Amino acid sequence: MLTTARHLLEEHFASAAVLGICLGITVSLIGIVRAGPEVALVVALTMVCTVLLRQPGGMSLPFLLNRMKIDTATVSALWSHPLPMSAAY
Questions:
Q1: Around Cβ 28, how many Cβ atoms within 10 Å?
Q2: pTM (predicted TM-score)
Q3: If 0-12 CB within 10 Å is exposed, 13-18 middle and 19+ buried, where does residue 7 land?
Q4: What single string gives the DSSP state of each residue in 31-69?
């Protein structure tokens, strides 16, 4: 069980690292144009750190919901549908 959890954590961390680096590069290109290289570096590093730090929570949420006997599909449906127009006002 521990080996499976470690493998899952490593896999999610690797994908989060790739995503963070891609987002960091994209945002840094915009930052260089708008504010200069110093701001671009700070924004890129912030983007990478944010993605890497949010990864454990996103990975563990389905396991936590299963332990609480809550259907994960029901919870994801809350964020997948936009608000009706009457609720937006």
A1: 20
A2: 0.64
A3: exposed
A4: HHHHT-HHHHHHHHHHHHHHHHHHHHHHHHHHHHHHHTT
Nearest-angstrom CA–CA distance, 89 and 86 = 6
- What's the confidence (pLDDT) of residue 25? 92
Q: What is the pLDDT at residue 42? A: 92
Q: Which two tokens stand for residue 47?
A: 């983007």
Give the pLDDT score at 1.
58
Q: How confident is the model over 43-56, as pLDDT tens digits? A: 899 988 988 888 87
- Return the amino acid letter for 44: A
Residue 51 burial by CB count (10 A; 0-12/13-18/19+): exposed, middle or buried?
buried
Q: 54-61 contacts: CB < 8 A, separation 24 or more?
A: 54/16, 55/12, 55/13, 55/16, 56/9, 56/12, 58/12, 59/8, 59/9, 59/12
